[in-house]
Amino acid sequence: MSSNGAPLLEISGLNVHYGPAHVLQDVSFEVRDKPVSLIGRNGMGKTTLCNAILQMPPGRVSGSIRFEGRELVGRASYKIAGAGIGYVPQGRRLYESLTVDEHLRMLAPRRGDSRWTIDRIYELFPRLAERKGTGGMQLSGGEQQMLAIGRALLTNPKLLIMDEPSEGLAPTIIEMLIETFRGLAQEGLAILCVEQNLAMATAMADRQLVMVAGRIAAETTGAELAHDPEAQRRWLGVERG
What we know:
Elements: E1 9-18, E2 21-31, E3 36-39, H1 46-53, E4 60-67, E5 70-71, H2 77-83, E6 85-88, H3 100-107, H4 118-124, H5 126-130, H6 141-153, E7 159-163, H7 171-186, E8 190-195, H8 198-204, E9 207-212, E10 215-221, H9 222-226, H10 229-236
């Protein structure tokens, strides 16, 4: 939540067109201080939404995206990141030519009073400290995701957006990440978790937004969604195992 009581992130009437395709259709929701999960199947527009918030889409964007009351539509992506939005993209997007330590040093804050430092990232993820001289693409899937999260945290965000953080990870790694995210949320970091993994989404946040065909089709809670097989089949095409 912003200092004046307004939502930290407020999206209103957001539309995104890729040529003739109307990918996002009048999307509206807000994020305050509690974690929020946005869940949906592949192809529903979830990554397009992330790209729109960071102003990275190749398509046409209309509507409003406000962060701490300031409009983001039309702003440069690096300025949005500098304003306090950290992003963990789908697929991690690491550099093959850089080691773990080089990935982190590339984004290490210059200010001495920064909340997140490289040392703190290594404390959060000790496995990265053990692998600091290893190339980013030589890491396991779980290690790569730790590095992508650490890289985002080094921007000292107020809001962390994660696109499919559980993708391709073993259940034990997913459980570890869930505990990590819960700890970050308790420290006051706002989180928007964009997922198709129902178990991950419901474990991450009580508030659930369901995206279907580019629209927010429903808003529910993690408990209600986890115990409603019919809703799972209707919106997600799956049931929680």
